[in-house]
Specification:
Blueprint: H1 4-18, E1 23-28, H2 41-45, E2 50-56, E3 59-64, E4 68-73, E5 78-84, E6 87-89, E7 105-111, E8 116-121, E9 127-132, H3 156-163, H4 170-175, H5 185-195, H6 215-234, E10 242-243, E11 249-250, E12 276-280, E13 283-287
Antiparallel strand pairs: 1-7, 2-3, 3-4, 4-9, 5-6, 5-8, 7-8, 10-11, 12-13
Helix pairs in contact: 1-6, 3-6, 5-6
Length: 294
């Protein structure tokens, strides 16, 4: 599944084609994706101008002149193709991405600026919805969602407040979307390594008895922001060269220090340890037992 940096890369790739343009025609080629499309989906979009294109966690949010928001999620295999000016580009290709057969083109947006934006999704785990802007935070998509890891809310104090009293493993707490929204397996592994924190450390240990953050909490907040910012700047992560919307390549996967590197030497100079894989809640965790002590 695309993680936050990949979704942010897609947002940046779609923004020039969509913001300021109107939906002239909408081809809705099936009644549902993971969820049914909202009633009168195409009719409600037609003629509407896209005022802004934002992101919340792993969701894309297109603010419309009508006051509604087009909520879009890529699911496991969703992707957008942008055809404009005689060229077609794909803003992002991700880990384990399925092929882009035209048989899986489920929605096509024809825009007033001549752009054609196609949503392709082989497994149909993505979704599209229309939600009034005033009701967005309380909607089924965002109700109870945690803080943004790239927003100003993430800090050592926030981590201490969210994790206080929790005995759940630190990695599991970081992946809990009710606490911090948008973090995924890849970047949590990388952040824990940089912060030198063991993935099975009790999450509550990052808060003192007084509720104040430990040094580890401050360090973790800093490296989470660093890892995500670096990945966004590089265009996300993939097992292949990552083609950004402008055709340049992103290589953040070359900066992975532990993710998917089980059995290789720890990259920390002088450590001498070996990157190890363990399974937590059905997901692979990669870490260095020497650098990342409990």
């Amino acid at each position: 599944m695309p993680e936050l940096p990949e979704v942010e890369t897609v947002r940046r790739g779609l923004e020039p084609a969509m913001v300021g343009a109107r939906f002239d025609k909408i081809e809705q080629r099936r009644p549902d994706l993971r969820l049914p499309f909202p009633k009168r989906f195409a009719a409600r979009l037609k003629g509407q101008e896209v005022i802004a294109l934002g992101r919340r966690a792993k969701y894309l949010l297109a603010d419309l002149a009508s006051g509604e928001v087009l909520v879009m999620h890529l699911g496991m295999t969703g992707r957008f193709l942008v055809a404009q000016g005689g060229a077609t580009r794909v803003p992002g290709e991700f880990h384990y991405q399925a092929g882009g057969s035209g048989a899986h083109d489920h929605v096509v947006f024809h825009l007033s600026n001549g752009a054609r934006v196609t949503y392709n999704d082989a497994r149909r785990f993505g979704l599209m919805d229309l939600v009034p802007r005033a009701e967005l935070d309380a909607s089924r998509h965002f109700r109870g969602m945690g803080i943004e890891p790239l927003g100003n809310e993430l800090s050592g104090e926030a981590i201490a407040r969210l994790f206080a009293g929790r005995r759940t493993p630190l990695k599991a707490a970081l992946l809990d979307q009710r606490l911090i929204a948008g973090l995924g397996n890849i970047y949590v592994c990388e952040a824990l390594f940089r912060a030198r924190l063991h993935p099975e450390t009790p999450a509550g240990s990052l808060a003192r008895a007084s509720g104040q953050p430990t040094g580890k909490a401050h360090r973790l907040a800093t490296v989470i922001r660093e890892v995500l910012s670096e990945a966004v700047a590089a265009g996300g992560s993939t097992l292949r060269d990552y083609a950004q919307a402008d055709g340049s390549l992103g290589y953040f996967q070359h900066a992975f220090r532990v993710y998917n590197r089980a059995g290789t030497p720890c990259p920390t100079r002088g450590c001498g340890g070996t990157v190890t894989r363990l399974v937590q809640a059905g997901r692979s965790t990669f870490f260095c037992p020497r650098c990342q002590k409990r």
